[in-house]
Amino acid sequence: MRDNISSLTRFDPTIRKVRPTSDTGYGAVMGEPKEPVDYDPRMDAAAAPDLNPPKKGWGCLGYCLGGCGAIIGLSLIIGFATTSNSKPYDSNNQYEAIAQCEDLVTARLKSPTSAEFDSSASSNGDRQWTVTGTVDADNSFGAKIRNTYQCSVRMIGDGKVERRLDRLG
After folding, report:
1. What's residue 99's pLDDT?
2. HSE of 150, CA atoms in CB hemisphere, 13 A
3. Which of 33, 41, 133, 156 has its CA 20 to 30 A from that of 149?
């Protein structure tokens, strides 16, 4: 089989031609003409100049700079939009009171990482809150135990808080 293939075509690397040697007139690829054909890559650009338009502008550098500029511009717009509507943080809210009380309870547990809280807070007026709830946490033996708790939280201001654990058990 190999002898048949080599007898059909002969490749000459110096002139880059495929010369037909069979009676059918076909070379190594079906449909090639009987005459040898030279390939010149410059002919592609000469035959269809619109397929290879000349490069203009900044090219890849322009795309990179444009993309970076768009990202910076978008981040500035988002930054100004979020800061212009924001209000100063008011620590006198039920979520802050619950967080302060849960931190106090967590400090007293044997396994603080296992704690699961269910808490609610009610305002007593004048920046004072009473937080009640339950906590499920592992004891010394690894068993999950439920405890109820109540604590009082008073928001003083400037990030200062007074908190007291009234009941845990």
Report:
1. 93
2. 4
3. 156
